[in-house]
UniProtKB/TrEMBL annotation:
InterPro entries: DNA_Partitioning_ATPase, P-loop_NTPase, VirC1
Pfam families: VirC1
Descriptive protein name: ParA family protein
Species, as recorded: Rhizobium oryzicola
Length: 227
């Protein structure tokens, strides 16, 4: 079953938000989901301590020594496995990236985030050299403005990434109050109260679109490996 990890050495890059939006959407659609919370701050574990009804299993005992076994065991039991990595480049992160079917590199539309995302790309490239094969990854923008309010810096960073032949998801996880509310209320997007969270429906639609694109990318990558 596919393993998806989120990596970026910059703290606050949106790794946990991206993972939770994807995982909760898949669980809401009936998929079995496990998240390995390897972030020392444990944001996903804190979310799981809330009242969400979604059957998302969260493992918070990841270490450098056990991360591969943890991923393999989770992948044998769940349809989808997500790994929320710590905000530093480490051996634990490298081992998770090597095992993953897809590495998401979340970034916001800022020059600092773009610089740190480049470091994450380098980590993937170094991992490729270590094992002698290509690894699948893509940049995943979050906290950007939806059209027609896209900022020029966001467009320029996207164009720069594409000009450097870096894969970029077309769907951004836009700046929405609902994504913060997930962690505040410890609920999924689908359990939040629309009367209390501004723009909840657009946030749900956005998460569904992002999930569909990630699933299509996984399918395409699997087809390329089989060819």
């Amino acid at each position: 079953m596919p393993v998806i990890c989120a990596a970026n050495p910059k703290g606050g890059a949106g790794k946990s938000t991206t993972i939770l939006a994807l995982a909760s959407t898949l669980a809401e659609q009936g998929g079995s989901v496990t998240i390995i919370d390897a972030d020392p701050n444990k944001p996903i574990s804190d979310w799981r301590s809330g009242a969400s009804r979604l059957p998302i299993k969260v493992l918070s005992n990841a270490t450098e020594a056990n991360i591969r076994d943890l991923i393999n065991t989770a992948a044998a039991e769940a349809q989808f496995v997500f790994v929320d990595l710590e905000g530093t480049a480490s051996r634990l992160a490298s081992r998770a990236i090597i095992r993953a079917d897809l590495t998401l590199i979340p970034l916001a539309g800022s020059a600092l985030d773009a610089k740190q995302a480049a470091r994450a790309v380098n980590l993937v490239r170094e991992s490729e050299e270590d094992i002698g094969r290509k690894l699948n990854f893509t940049l995943a923008f979050n906290r950007t403005n939806p059209p027609p309010f896209t900022r020029r810096i966001e467009r320029e960073i996207t164009e720069q990434m594409l000009s450097n032949d870096l894969p970029v998801l077309k769907t951004h996880l836009y700046r929405r109050e609902a994504y913060n509310a997930m962690f505040m209320e410890r609920l999924s997007l689908f359990e939040l109260d629309a009367s209390q969270v501004n723009g909840l429906e657009p946030a749900i639609d956005n998460a569904i679109q992002l999930t569909a694109e990630v699933l299509e990318l996984l399918k395409r990558n699997a087809g390329e490996r089989a060819a």
